[in-house]
Amino acid sequence: MPSRTCSHSPSGFGKSLPEQGLLLLVVLVLLEGSVLPLGAASSPDVSHQDDSHNHKVADHGVNATKKVFPVLDVDYHHIQTPFEISLWVLLASLMKLGFHLIPRLSSIVPESCLLIVVGLLVGGLIKLAGEQVPPVLDSRLFFLCLLPPIILDAGYFLPIRPFMENVGTILMFAVVGTVWNAFFVGGLLYAVCQIQPANPSSLHSIELLHCLLFGSIISAVDPVAVLAVFEEIHINELLHILVFGESLLNDAVTVVLYHLFVEYAGVGTVTVMDGFLGVISFLVVALGGVLVGAIYGILAAFTSRFTSHTRVIEPLFVFVYSYMAYLSAEMFHLSGIMALIACGAVMRPYVEANISHKSHTTIKYFLKMWSSVSETLIFIFLGVATVDGPHSWNWTFVTVTVILCLVARVIGVVGLTYIINKFRIVKLTTKDQFIVAYGGLRGAIAFSLGFLLDQNQFAHRKMFLTAIITVIFFTVFVQGMTIKPLVELLAVKKKQEAKRSINEEIHTQFLDHLLTGIEDICGHYGHHHWKDKLNRFNKKYVKKCLIAGERSKEPQLIAFYHKMEMKQAIELVESGGGVKLPSAVPSTVSMQNIQPKKPPPAKAAERALPQLPKGREEEIRKILRSNLQRTRQRLRSYNRHTLVADPYEDGFSDLLIKKQKMIELEKKIKEMNNYLTVPAAPPDSPTMCRARLASGRDTDFKPAQQQKGNKICPDPQAYSMKPVSDSVPVIQVDLASPQSPDSVNVMDEFRRANQEEDQGLMMKPPQGSSGSNKPGEADTTRDQQRLMRCLSDPGPSADEDEDEPFLP
Amino acid sequence: MGALQSSPGQPEYIDLAEKTGFSFEQIGVLHKRFKQLSHNETTLRRDHFNEIPDLACNPIRAQIIEAFFDRRNYRQNGEGTVDEIGFEEFLVVMSHFRPPSLNMTDEQRESVRKEKLRFLFNMHDTDNDGTITLEEYRHVVEELLSRSGALGKETAKSIADAAMLEVASISMGHMEPDEFYEGITFEHFLKLLAGFEIESKMNIRFLNMDTTTLCK
To answer: Where is it located (chain B) (predicted)?
Structure first.
């Protein structure tokens, strides 16, 4: 969750009026939530009686005692469930808002802690009100509704490259580490419970299998908690992916161990055969989950290939297929989490190549929204369930559990790292090990699994739950709060914020091929070799199948380049040109500085300068046009409602500023031309079809530089505009001035621009003949449509993580 | 020579191990591979490399092979190219891909980084003038995109131009409109890939086992 800086609240504790209002709102919501159920108790009778009475009146029409027709009636039961759900969600969201208004709190205490505290408060309030606390952390609700969005979000945006590079390490931690934890904690707990023979306590009745079951529940690192805490500390990619990957992949182990021990705890013994079956079961659960996810992922990718005409429901396919993957896996008792991860990771590169920009944004924001709300709800419910939950406190059990969990984690990490480092190229240092060990947080999954236990079968369920909650609180509060200062103290490497540059991308690709080549020469079939084989397989067969149209052949470097320049174009337009060109390093270096010098040619044809395809230039104009279009439309509506164009109205100065900005923007666009030189997509690309649907308004304008020229020829591609017919005086600004119905010929613009501009960057005019007109115009169309894809949506904020290509 | 030479005695290995940092087992394995590639001759030529089937589908095959015959990579400050190489040169070139050891000081790590980046630089700078010109960089990108047919040519130029512009911006910062940026020097190259962490990436795992029978 990105923390938003609060712009209007002063530092310190002074609260301004909006914040007070917000707090009041929150309190009201809380009261409403707790009071209404009370009111509901009394109203149903009334409403039912009214109903029956009215019924009678309607049926018989006789003079039964005619009640007054209920003009206003309260029927709470009718809407109770959705209403309460909405209330909880609203509460969660308001809490999230509230935290960021308190300036210092959010930097000291991680959000998860605050949310648990809020949950405790709410639970306490409800209990004080005398109501029964709703069983909010119902396992079904948790596993079927609250958990999937978080996992899907994690899986869809999983950075594939670092994950795959470290998959061996991650699997070691997830599988071996979790098993070790489970047995260590379970076994030692049993041993501890058995001591003190002189003083037989209730602990003695715990069986070994119950302890092992408890150990397996408590030993799994929780993805929700890890996500919540690690989001805020921004450590380097390697550590993040290690802990996070472990928390995702250990689900398979947890599922198997849990079911194994639940099954056999009833029987009382476990044989070697059962252990063997357990191992087989683990493989089935893990691989089966991944397989189910991959199948659904491929289906989703295949479906997205055909969605070019129904762009609106594209995100729906992503969500529904993923959810079905999760449910299908859960149906077979396979690992639902791994299915979700596999589904998201498999479908992503293909779906993203197929869907529109808007759908991409929709998917991203919906996933973030749902996962954020889910996470908030989970923590609040954890707090509420703590207040409510049946507790049975036992000092020995709980403290021993906490200590054992910590010890087991540390020993496991250190031991495993020792083994893993023998196989790793980049070894894990002690600092890394410490962070990995310290980041092993437990969370709501453990609690839900404990909640699922049958009270009749497991006599000590209450004690287990209490212990689980204590461990969760301990890890989330103590470890969660202290990890940030520890990271600072130990000077752990933080996440690099640098943008990915085209040079790095080139060299990443180059290095991949180089290393593969060296491996082939050496004769060692290392993982570069296999990765290269997989890439080639992907390119040859899979992409053709799953990606629509021409984009299936687009090499990855070009795809990356496209993305970059689209981003640049969007950023440039959004910044309105007033800000300097959004490059990583502001500099005055432009294209001409790097071109090899040639003797000064007389004709432009001899210049060895990058030829801008004509379409590009048109693209740029379209950027300007559509941006200004918005301005002008605002202008128009503004004018329609005001009878007199008052030059001293507020809008006027804005217009002047805008005009200034546009001129600067054009200059910047020219400088930017060096990036926008990739030829347009071929005609049958999804961009074209989509743009045909999206093609819009018919307005036109001439950029400032063209005002000087007066050669106007019809150009079928440019928008044609409706002449201004109303007699309302319009604010006359150059950019918005009404045009003659003709529009501008692209070629002539170029020629004129060439002569007028004295900047270094040149555009080569096409070689005159009308024959070249056609391909140029077709080019234009393609570019313009392609640009519509990105311009119709302001686009997501620059978030580099998602740009990781699959199988780079 | 040739078939009679079974394995060089330990003294030769010691010398090589010191020079390149490989272990004895690794040198032994690589020696076997060398002999397999050269059909038991003492020197390797370019056509020996061309016979490796896996290498055929690598887009930058030519550059990789050239790197082995480039005297700049032999750590003797030589220049120019040779036509055939012995086992020692083979090993020296291979040693550029050794992973850095765990306990390294910062200076050692820095020198390893420089060495690897120097190797990459030499691969790009084919005419050996100390700078990567725009033409050479374009060639690099074209090779990378060589598998994508007609689409590649046009785009490769633009991508190379954009990349060059970025290097120039990073290294030079401010340039007058009539100044000319000659090419990427080694210092600029270092600056460019400063955040790339090449010492962790440009490594392959040299096995201690003999896998020559498994691979072609």
So the answer is: Cell projection, Lamellipodium; Cell projection, Ruffle membrane; Cytoplasm; Membrane
Q: In which element (H, E) is residue B84 found?
A: strand B84-85
A-chain residue closest to B200, CA distance = A426
pLDDT tens for each residue of A118-162: 888 888 888 888 777 677 677 788 889 999 999 999 888 888 888
Between these two residues, A656 and A287, which has the higher pLDDT value?
A: A287
- Cross-strand bridge partners of residue B70: B81
Q: With contacts defined as CB-CB under 8 Å, which chain B residues touch A425?
A: 99, 200, 203, 205
pLDDT tops 80 at residue A579: no
The pLDDT, as a whole number, for residue A582 is 44
* Chain A to chain B Cβ contacts (< 8 Å): 195
A510–B60 C-beta distance less than 8 A: yes
- Could you tell me the pTM of the whole model? 0.70
User: For residue B159, what is the nearest residue in chain A, using CA coordinates?
Assistant: A561
Which residues 481-540 of chain A have a CB within 8 Å of chain B?
496, 498, 501-504, 506-507, 509-511, 513-526, 528-529, 536
pLDDT averaged over chain A? 71
CA distance A146 to A378: 7
What's the N-to-C CA distance of chain A in angstroms?
27
Q: Which residues have CB under 8 Å from A325's CB, separation 6+?
A: A292, A293, A295, A296, A297, A339, A340, A342, A343
A195 near A410, Cβ under 8 Å? no
Residue A682: how many CB atoms within 10 A of its CB? 15
Extents of the domains making up chain B: 11-99+202-213, 106-192
- Is A588 in CB contact (< 8 Å) with chain B? yes
Reported as a pLDDT band with limits 50, 70 and 90, residue A516 is confident
Q: Contact at 8 Å (CB) between A408 and A184?
A: yes
Query: Quick check: do B11-99+202-213 and B106-192 share a fold?
Result: yes
CA nearest to B59 within chain A? A513
CATH of domain B11-99+202-213: 1.10.238.10
Q: Quick one: CATH architecture of B106-192?
A: Orthogonal Bundle (1.10)
Domain with CATH 1.20.1530.20 in chain A: 139-490
pLDDT confidence bin for A410, thresholds 50/70/90: very high
Residue in chain A lying closest to B138 (CA):
A506
Chain B: give the shortest CA distance to residue A590, in Å. 7
Q: Where is mean pLDDT largest: A304-313, A742-751, B16-25?
A: A304-313
What is the predicted pLDDT for the residue at A320? 94
Chain A contact probe: residue of B47, B165, B179 with most A CBs at under 10 A = B165
CATH of domain A139-490: 1.20.1530.20
| Contact between chains at A529 and B151 (C-beta distance less than 8 A) | no
**Neighboring chain B residues of A162 at a CB cutoff of 8 Å:** none
Residue from the list B59, B180, B196 with its beta carbon closest to the beta carbon of A513: B59
Residues of B whose CB is below 8 A from A681: none
Q: What is the pLDDT of residues B7-45, one digit of tens each?
A: 555 677 788 788 777 888 888 888 888 888 888 888 888
Does the beta-carbon distance from B211 to A524 stay under 8 Å? yes
pLDDT per residue over A218-256, tens digit each? Answer: 998 899 989 888 888 888 888 889 999 999 888 888 888
Contacts of A166 (CB under 8 A, 6+ apart): A238, A241, A242, A245
> What pLDDT shows up at residue A291?
94
- What ipTM was estimated for this complex? 0.90
**Do the Cβ atoms of A521 and B192 come within 8 Å?**
no
Which residue, among B132, B137, B197, B205, would best test binding to A if mutated, counting the most A CBs under 10 Å from its CB? B205
Alpha carbon A700 to chain centroid distance?
37
A134: left (phi over 0), alpha (psi -120 to 50) or beta: beta
| Residue B66 C-alpha, separation from nearest chain A C-alpha, in angstroms | 12
